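Justification of computing resources. Each target in the renewal requires a structure prediction run like the one illustrated here; the chain below, 390 residues long, is used simply to show the kind of job we budget for.
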Amino acid sequence: MQLLISRDILLNAINLISKAADKRHNMAVLANLKMVLTDNQLLLTASDLEVELQASVNLPTGACQQAGQTTVPASKFKDIIKLLPDNQVSISVADDAQCHIVCGKSRFKLGTLPAEDFPMLGQPEQITPVQVGREHLSDLLETTHFAMAVQDVRHYLTGMLFELKDNQLATVATDGHRLALARTLIDNVDNVELSAILPRKAVLELQRLLGELKKLLPNHDNQITLNVGREFLQVILPFGEVGSDGQMQNPILVSFTARLIDGKFPDYRRVMPSNHSKVAHINQEQLVHVLRRVAVLSHEKSRGVVFDFLNQESLEIKARNAEQDEAKEELLIKYDGEPMEISFNVAYLIDVLNVLQGDIQFNMSQANGSVLLHQVNDSFHEYVIMPMRI
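Resulting structure tokens:
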């Protein structure tokens, strides 16, 4: 194969997909990028068999000098292209099976592996398309992703539930200690219902791609189609350079395909507290500052802080560690209920507060009962935190 291509266009395509390559996989070829060159298109693929990213670049006449395919080490290839001068890059694979990269007076040779050995995930089957605005999809991911479990024998907790019901698309994440739920309204004229669990890495990759798309088109809320299949979820996103007229130039189509987690997500509705005999309204910004100060003296392992609701206007937040150091700070609040002490893991609490703003409503029943948090006048984002014993 032999290709002549703009360094910037090639680098953009590599940056969008290369994070899916997996150096630690027991299949060495998955540390590589697969390159397929045809007369008018370059297709780059990176995969770890759970998440597959493909970038399709349309080529001008003459760019493809000889069609072909190969795979090159993703990390080395990216570093080389990144450091080349802004110029045309020649990429070729000759009989020696090495990838030759030429740009100006720079010459590189990279080892390759056969493209035929690169495994592909395939296309989703029995697709249900779900259309949602980019901003809404980004919000669903950003406001819930932190609650996914990192490692858990209950593998379905290491992902995020996507649930379509009535006219709402919801995302739910939980690690057993806290739960995050976000919803958005969509057009679901056929009243389709679906439930799919997207793995943690796939969630973070999709979140990253949506962030890159927002940087590219900050004032344009693209409609995103989630193609949810029996085993896979696929999304196709348009990237490229934006001209002075605001239109996309040199488009790069990125196809995101992720293998869904095979499992049954717990019924999150059953853990949403409904009996609230005690309600507190607390300013998010003030509370975060107090928690960060008090948490300095919390126990290194438990990271526990105590909320002491003294009366209708006062909350005392305190922490103590194994050395008997102690921190206390009082905060002005609005509280309706009997005086009560309840303890939280401060890290879990701050994670929730970081995606909220303004006045936060705490709905509580008893010291050992779960707590429901949400922004005042916002019913689309809800969070549950389990209290802890100190």
